């Protein structure tokens, strides 16, 4: 009797052990795949970081080496002799203005599409969705024609104004405003608040997660923008970091590739974006979670 009850138990334990081994093997394979993708993603950045502190000859002879031999700050010193500080200043000015204007205008447009009733609202939203599907590069020539027609070519307004509103930003804000209960706005109207007062004092403070998300996306997008800055100016005193870095990699340094100085410029260019993301990361995550819960 005892033999007949122990055999099924033994088979069950054996099946359970096989299942645990299969699970462990699957986990190891998943971790190995994740580690491989992480290395593929991180390795180019490590190469950039190390190359920035190499001499030019070392960078050419040992491009994939992870140890600078010798360690050198020549790239940093040479970069300061270029117009890099001017490019950095221009990027900061343009990015701050674009981010502030984009957050304000996208919020107002999103609120109007979500709450205000006016003729053609659905048509405007349909056009907005269609614009999101158009590749940005297709709009470069029309942008250049408009900038030239307005007479602002080779000026800060040419760099800033065409980027002041973004279809994706309007869409994000509209979707968030639609999640806010209308009863809150009705209470504000009963207290005598007009549409703009209701938007500015009641609804906009509640949209903090969406505003932070839009701020991060706007800062990153305008900081890394290149195509628009190419068609907006050919004055080297108005070059931003992306435009200046592109000139360095296309012969602006004279003969030779001179990888260390271009890698140093690229490394310095990534620092502000990384700082913004790290500083707002917690709020960015909260915004995503809030959107998921409400969705």
Automatic annotation (TrEMBL):
<keyword id="KW-0813">Transport</keyword>
<keyword id="KW-1133">Transmembrane helix</keyword>
<feature type="transmembrane region" description="Helical">
    <location>
        <begin position="156"/>
        <end position="177"/>
    </location>
</feature>
<comment type="similarity">
    <text>Belongs to the binding-protein-dependent transport system permease family.</text>
</comment>
<dbReference type="InterPro" id="IPR000515">
    <property type="entry name" value="MetI-like"/>
</dbReference>
<keyword id="KW-1003">Cell membrane</keyword>
<protein>
    <submittedName>
        <fullName>N-Acetyl-D-glucosamine ABC transport system, permease protein 1</fullName>
    </submittedName>
</protein>
<feature type="domain" description="ABC transmembrane type-1">
    <location>
        <begin position="88"/>
        <end position="280"/>
    </location>
</feature>
<keyword id="KW-0472">Membrane</keyword>
<feature type="transmembrane region" description="Helical">
    <location>
        <begin position="259"/>
        <end position="280"/>
    </location>
</feature>
<keyword id="KW-0812">Transmembrane</keyword>
<dbReference type="GO" id="GO:0055085">
    <property type="term" value="P:transmembrane transport"/>
</dbReference>
<feature type="transmembrane region" description="Helical">
    <location>
        <begin position="86"/>
        <end position="113"/>
    </location>
</feature>
<dbReference type="Pfam" id="PF00528">
    <property type="entry name" value="BPD_transp_1"/>
</dbReference>
<dbReference type="InterPro" id="IPR035906">
    <property type="entry name" value="MetI-like_sf"/>
</dbReference>
<feature type="transmembrane region" description="Helical">
    <location>
        <begin position="198"/>
        <end position="219"/>
    </location>
</feature>
<dbReference type="GO" id="GO:0005886">
    <property type="term" value="C:plasma membrane"/>
</dbReference>
<feature type="transmembrane region" description="Helical">
    <location>
        <begin position="125"/>
        <end position="150"/>
    </location>
</feature>
<feature type="transmembrane region" description="Helical">
    <location>
        <begin position="29"/>
        <end position="53"/>
    </location>
</feature>
């Amino acid at each position: 009797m005892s033999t007949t009850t122990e055999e099924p138990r033994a088979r069950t334990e054996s099946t359970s052990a096989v299942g645990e081994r299969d699970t462990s093997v699957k986990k190891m394979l998943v971790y190995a795949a994740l580690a491989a993708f992480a290395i593929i993603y991180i390795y180019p950045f490590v190469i950039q970081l190390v190359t920035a502190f190499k001499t030019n000859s070392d960078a050419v002879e040992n491009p994939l080496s992870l140890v600078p031999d010798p360690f050198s700050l020549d790239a940093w010193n040479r970069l300061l002799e270029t117009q890099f500080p001017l490019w950095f200043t221009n990027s900061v000015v343009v990015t701050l203005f674009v981010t502030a204007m984009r957050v304000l205008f996208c919020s107002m447009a999103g609120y109007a599409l979500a709450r205000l009733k006016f003729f053609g609202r659905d048509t405007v939203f349909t056009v907005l969705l269609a614009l999101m599907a158009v590749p940005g590069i297709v709009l470069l020539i029309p942008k250049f024609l408009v900038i030239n027609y307005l007479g602002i070519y080779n000026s800060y307004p040419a760099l800033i104004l065409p980027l002041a509103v973004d279809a994706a930003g309007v869409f994000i804000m509209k979707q968030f405003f639609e999640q806010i209960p209308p009863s809150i706005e009705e209470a504000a109207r009963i207290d005598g608040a007009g549409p703009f007062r209701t938007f500015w004092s009641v609804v906009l403070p509640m949209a903090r997660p969406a505003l932070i998300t839009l701020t991060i996306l706007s800062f990153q997008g305008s900081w890394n923008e290149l195509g628009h800055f190419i068609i907006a100016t050919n004055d080297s005193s108005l070059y931003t970091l992306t435009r200046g870095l592109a000139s360095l990699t296309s012969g602006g340094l004279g003969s030779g590739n001179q990888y260390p100085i271009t890698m140093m410029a690229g490394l310095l260019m990534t620092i502000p974006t990384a700082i913004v993301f790290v500083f707002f990361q917690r709020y960015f995550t909260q915004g995503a979670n809030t959107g998921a819960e409400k969705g």
